[in-house]
Amino acid sequence: MATITLQYDVRNKQAKQMIELIQSLGLATRKTTGLEEALEDVENGRLTTVHVPKIRKTE
Q: Exposure pattern of 26-54 as b/e (b: 16+ CB <10 Å)?
């Protein structure tokens, strides 16, 4: 398997449609970032509790 990095202007509708077409055909996959995976977990209900760390005051 080969890895190809594409750079394109997101505002270019034709380029974006072409990449989406290639992905929909199953010819290529998109590597997701950790943030995108976390947002997907929230969207699909796999994450039910969010823990916010407490800020400790240092003296």
A: eeeeeeeeeeeeeeeeeeeeeeeeeeeee
Distance CA 56, CA 59 (A): 10
Predicted model pTM: 0.46
Q: Give residue 34's Cα distance to chain centre.
A: 7
CB 23 within 8 A of CB 15: no
Mean pLDDT by 10 residues, the chain (59 residues): 81 90 85 84 81 76
Distance between CA atoms of 5 and 12, rounded to whole angstroms? 17
Cα–Cα distances in angstroms (integers) from residue 21 to residues 5, 11, 29, 53, 56, in the given order: 17, 16, 11, 41, 49
